Amino acid sequence: MDLSGNQIGERIKHLRKERGWTLKELSGRAQVSTATLSKIENAQVAATFDTLVKVAQGLNVTFDSMLMDVGASRAGGRLVVTGPGDTVHFATSMYDYEVHSGELRRKRMIPLIMRIKARSLEDITNWSSHAGEEFIFIMKGTVRLYTEFYSPVELKVGESAYIDSEMEHAFVSIGEGEAEIISICLSTQTTQAFFAAAGMYETSDPPDRSPPSK
């Protein structure tokens, strides 16, 4: 399923209004500026993965259910098969994303297939930074991985990297055509967002839904 910026924006706006929140209230919960949220809701900018994760956390829904209206699943057996036409697709100027296992709730990971469109560091308009850790495996092409604290490294097909994803990072394709990678993101914050969906929490206490402090 391909999601346009307009569809993503409408989905976020629907979830926000469903809760009776203003843009300012969601901004305080998601730690994303009001101006950015407004632009996303009105499809004026293409939201990055990092921003969408923060918005999902602010809305207390899973990353997947924010993008697609899926029902809650039972808490027991955990299995989902994702076919070629079952992924959720969205894009920025730098990367194309395909989200796998979108129907499985209460996940501890966000599995992505990413196509790297950026061809140089000048093409990187936003460096990624999100809480937790990230595993990267190169499936196609050659990728130069830039990070905040290390020199750039080149990764070829079959090679992988494991990083602290809170450290700013970016991917650039340096071979012929667009490189393709598997990215698996894991974080405590992401896990809490997943468990918050449909009243399922990691602890016995639901998240604080009080308005953000002035």
Task: Annotate the secondary structure layout.
Layout: H1 5-18, H2 23-30, H3 34-41, H4 49-59, H5 63-67, E1 88-91, E2 95-99, E3 109-116, E4 133-140, E5 143-147, E6 153-155, E7 160-164, E8 169-173, E9 179-186, H6 188-196
Can you offer a commentary on this structure?
- The chain contains six helices and nine strands.
- The protein is of the alpha+beta class and 214 residues long.
- It has a single domain, classed as Jelly Rolls.
- A hairpin with a 3-residue loop joins strand 1 and strand 2.
- The C terminus is likely disordered.
Structural class by secondary-structure content: alpha+beta
Gross geometry:
globular
Query: What ranges have pLDDT less than 50 throughout 5 or more consecutive residues?
Result: 70-75, 190-214
Distance between the termini: 39 Å
Q: What's the structural domain tally?
A: 1
According to CATH, the fold-level topology is Jelly Rolls
Please work out how many helical segments DSSP would assign.
6
Oligomeric status: single chain
Alpha carbon gyration radius: 17 Å
Salient structural properties:
24% strand; 214 residues; disordered C terminus; six-stranded antiparallel beta sheet; 9 strands
Quickly describe the structure.
The chain is α+β, with helices and mostly antiparallel strands and 214 residues long. It has six helices and nine strands, in the order H-H-H-H-H-E-E-E-E-E-E-E-E-E-H.
